[in-house]
Design goal:
The structure is a single chain. This protein is of the alpha/beta class. The protein is 36% helix and 16% strand. The chain has 17 helices and 15 strands. A seven-stranded parallel sheet has the order 5-6-4-7-8-3-9. Strands 10-15-14-11-13-12 form a six-stranded parallel sheet, with helices on both faces. A two-stranded antiparallel ribbon has the order 1-2. Helix 5 runs parallel beside helix 6. The chain is globular, with a radius of gyration of 22 Å. The protein starts with 6 loop residues before the first helix and ends with a strand. The structure holds adenosine monophosphate. Adenosine monophosphate binds next to helix 6. The site of adenosine monophosphate has 14 residues, from helix 6.
């Protein structure tokens, strides 16, 4: 744990020294436990108390989770069209991930499925593969509707669909907020097999009678828990209510909160549950620790970490408001730490550019709000840093799930007052 009693605060004057200060991020959480677990957090002018127990934010990654799930079959063994297999192999997939392995037959048999899987577990392919398979056997226009909480996640699913269906004559479109709706209207003149979108923009297009929900018989709700968190419940209900011919529903969530159960039971019928994580605890393959700020200079502490460029090479920093994200990013840039920002006030283009730079390693740091960072799929994020303790464990799990993806071990630090 970082503490202002340690050398960390003193050493912050040496910006750019590049000295290793590993000891500063030890695992000593007791002083924090004693001092500040019940301290209210100041947020956006008001006081809101985090419901998070900071004790839960300190844990070592367990070795066994690094041993990845190993499917007994390869991609080539899957009971799907050879052309689809070729697309998956071309993407570099050799074996199905756990969620893919354990849901495939249920989905091919037409069962509704509740998939509980962490971000990065391959859940996009888990639902796209059976959808593509069905479309190859029985091409139907406007077949599946995929509803997701964020624009980035929608774009990523669209990209996955394109690469998984190369040369198969299947078409998808992505409709998300923050883009020109007239472009969407033009896109809708062509027909698609699958539509991916965020609830607000989908409802706009449905309201203009440009999307007819009755044509879709398959519904995918991805990051369902997030959609509830983000207040999309009524939008989701409207969309689901309009799908009069819905026959097949797939619901994916990283966490499973018992209060969601009756809602899930209303959406899915006679469904199979596939759990790839317990959905309640934080990611076991991520080293997690807290950094005690006390009266210290939090920004300097952050810089000290970031100056260890080799180790902290791709860092996702969470701030709580758009304004704070902007300010933190500017402060980092001023001291020559390459950074960009991603939040709701940025245009979709700017968000995508920032994400691309981060993916390609052109910037060291991406500063983000919770909401904007949903669905960020960057496989080698070295660290997630919570510049503010998140309000809920759910939000914490989603944030730290951006590191330690694709079987890698991740690291997450949370600053606590
Ligand atoms: P997701 O959980 O869907 O966001 O996927 C996380 C990442 O894993 C994406 O970059 C996928 O392309 C990749 N992926 C999905 N399935 C597999 C697989 N069977 N083998 C290797 N990579 C995969």
């Amino acid at each position: 744990m970082y503490s202002n009693n340690t050398s960390s605060t003193k050493s912050t004057k040496s910006f750019g020294s590049g000295k290793k200060k590993k000891k500063q991020y030890g695992n000593k959480s007791n002083s924090f436990r004693n001092k500040s677990s019940n301290r209210p957090q100041q947020r956006g002018g008001g006081f809101k108390k985090s419901t998070l127990d900071p004790n839960l934010l300190v844990r070592k990654a367990t070795e066994e989770v690094i041993v990845e799930y190993e499917s007994k079959r390869t991609i080539k063994d899957l009971p799907i069209d050879i052309n689809l297999i070729e697309c998956l192999v071309a993407k570099g997939f050799s074996k199905p991930t756990q969620i893919q392995d354990q849901t495939l037959e249920y989905l091919l048999d037409g069962h509704d499925v509740l998939g509980i899987a962490q971000t990065g577990s391959g859940k996009t392919a888990a639902f796209l593969v059976p959808i593509i398979q069905e479309l190859l056997q029985n091409p139907q226009k406007s077949y599946a509707l995929v509803v997701v909480p964020t624009r980035e996640l929608a774009s990523q699913i669209q990209d996955e669909f394109i690469s998984m269906s190369k040369g198969l004559n299947l078409y998808s479109e992505c409709f998300i907020g923050g883009t020109n709706i007239n472009t969407d209207i033009k896109k809708l003149r062509r027909s698609q097999h699958i539509i991916i979108g965020t609830p607000g923009r989908l409802l706009d297009l449905i309201g203009k009678k440009l999307i007819d929900l009755r044509k879709f018989n398959t519904l995918v709700l991805d990051e369902f828990d997030r959609m509830l968190d983000m207040g999309f419940i009524h939008d989701m209900k409207k969309i689901i209510g309009g799908m009069e011919n819905r026959k097949h529903s797939l619901l994916f969530s990283a966490t499973l909160d018992k209060t969601q159960q009756s809602l899930i039971d209303n959406i899915l019928s006679d469904y199979k549950t596939v759990k790839c994580s317990n959905g309640e605890t934080t990611c076991d393959h991520i080293d997690q620790d807290i950094i005690h700020v006390g009266g210290g200079d939090k920004f300097k502490m952050l810089c000290d970490m970031l100056y260890e460029k080799e180790e902290f090479s791709k860092v996702l920093v969470f701030e709580e408001t758009k304004h704070k994200v902007k300010r933190l990013c500017q402060k980092l840039e001023k001291i020559d730490i390459t950074a960009d920002q991603i939040h709701g006030n940025k245009s979709q283009n700017a968000r995508q550019n920032a994400l691309n730079k981060f993916k390609k390693g052109k910037i060291q740091v991406l500063v983000a709000t919770d909401v904007a960072a949903r669905g960020i799929d960057v496989s080698d994020v070295t660290h997630v840093i919570n510049y503010q303790i998140p309000l809920t464990m759910d939000s914490y799990i989603h944030r730290i799930g951006r590191t330690g993806r694709a079987g890698k071990r991740g690291k997450a630090f949370t600053f606590v007052d």
